[in-house]
Fold this protein.
Amino acid sequence: MAKDEKDQVMQEVGEKLISRIDMTVEEEKQEADKEKEENIEKARIRIIADNEQQLEDLQKKLDEKMANEETKLTEQMEQRKAQVLALKRQNLEDRIKMAGDISQNQIVELRQQYEREFNNVENAIREEKEK
């Protein structure tokens, strides 16, 4: 009978040990799954941060290019403005020369017309810049 009791005790001890081993393995699996999820979340956060940095870098480059283009456009408009105004001045001078003996009032009228044309050019340039 002692052998039966020993076998039964051994059986119970064995079952308890197997149960504890199973619980330990299950806990380790859960811990490994938790660690895996944490690592995945860290990787996601890192990817998002990298993407945000890339977007920020792209936005900076775009802003720089836009500023450069705006500067170029402004320079071109200023050059064109200078050309148009030079042509208008020359046109006014040519009109005065062609008229020969014109009165002072006619010269004043021509200069006023020139000023109006000059203002129209200025307004057109300002409106173009606002677009």
Q: What stands out?
A: Residues 2-130 form one domain. The mean pLDDT is 83.
